[in-house]
């Protein structure tokens, strides 16, 4: 038994080393990917439920690996967070998305807004306001067309700093979206403290709804509450028309999901705008 314990201890150690090496390997790869511009931005439409027209695009990062193909953000965002690489990565996405929207505006396509995800490090450990200011200056984008998506977990890491950063964005007229709403450590008092413009109802509530009566009750209550707080609502992960019908009855403003489109490269998204698509 003693020997067994020794063996398993060694195995454990061996695995730990592998994990550490793999992490360093991945970190170096990601660093190179940022330098070599292997990162790209995909766009997913967010639809105005009333009109069926595209209202916004959410910018979602992808890694176009020369050998492995497209790598999903779930595979590298956590590492980027851990290593601080999320700060240059995040600035890249912000700049790219703002530049892209300004290009589309210049082409006089169907007008939309852009929405960009932020991470905790970007929010609390970098001079985010200055970065956003500079990017808006460089691209000439109207701040009212930019939305920043934050999660509750970002917000509660430092409530006081969150309140002051969000107020700065409010003064700049940049919109704030509360992402994945309902999954975090939701405290409704945050909705009062934080200058939030739009609530994105998490996909987990939209899945199985409207056939699941408890989920329907939660979704309709979130929308009713948001409307009373004069906040807008976006339903995430919408995959069928029966949900749209129900969301419309609940007075949800916008919807996003595979029903309309997966996240797609800029050129493909541009075609949707060019053709002024109506869903
Ligand atoms: P998120 O911000 O909640 O983004 C929505 C995710 O849901 C996207 O995954 C999108 O492809 C997926 N999705 C949209 N509609 C549907 C649907 O109808 N059904 C299903 N099953 N999924 C749907 P994606 O692009 O893989 O991104 C995953 C997460 O990675 C994002 O979740 C976000 O947290 C993070 N992320 C992506 N890009 C960035 C970025 O530029 N910066 C930061 N900090 N995080 C990012
Ligand atoms: Ca998001
Ligand atoms: Ca989300
Ligand atoms: Ca998410």
TrEMBL record:
Domain (EAL): residue spans on this chain: 23-277
GO terms for biological process, alphabetical: regulation of DNA-templated transcription
This protein's UniProt keywords: Membrane, Transmembrane, Transmembrane helix
UniProt KW Membrane keyword: yes
Protein's name in the database: Periplasmic sensor diguanylate cyclase/phosphodiesterase
């Amino acid at each position: 038994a003693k020997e067994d314990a020794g063996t398993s201890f060694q195995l454990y150690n061996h695995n730990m080393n592998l994990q550490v090496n793999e992490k360093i390997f991945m970190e170096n790869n990601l660093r190179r990917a940022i330098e070599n511009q292997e990162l790209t931005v995909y766009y997913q439409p967010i639809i105005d439920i009333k009109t069926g027209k595209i209202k916004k695009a959410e910018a979602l990062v992808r890694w176009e690996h020369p050998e492995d193909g497209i790598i999903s953000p779930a595979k590298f965002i956590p590492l980027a967070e851990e290593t601080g690489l999320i700060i240059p990565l995040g600035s890249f996405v912000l700049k790219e998305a703002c530049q892209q929207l300004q290009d589309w505006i210049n082409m006089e396509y169907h007008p939309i807004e852009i929405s960009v995800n932020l991470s905790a490090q970007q929010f609390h450990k970098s001079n985010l306001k200055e970065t956003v200011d500079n990017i808006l200056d460089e691209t000439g984008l109207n701040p009212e067309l930019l939305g920043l998506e934050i999660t509750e977990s970002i917000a509660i890491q430092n409530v006081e700093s969150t309140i002051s950063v969000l107020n700065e964005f409010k003064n700049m007229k940049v919109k704030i979206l509360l992402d994945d709403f309902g999954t975090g450590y939701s405290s409704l008092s945050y909705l009062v403290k934080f200058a939030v413009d739009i609530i994105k109802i998490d996909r987990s509530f939209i899945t199985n709804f409207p056939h699941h009566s408890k989920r329907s009750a939660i979704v309709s209550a979130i929308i009713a509450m948001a409307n009373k707080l004069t906040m807008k609502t976006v339903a995430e992960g919408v995959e069928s028309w029966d949900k749209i019908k129900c969301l419309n009855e609940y007075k949800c403003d916008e919807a996003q999901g595979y029903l309309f489109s997966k996240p797609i490269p800029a050129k493909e998204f541009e075609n949707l705008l060019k053709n002024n698509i109506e869903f």
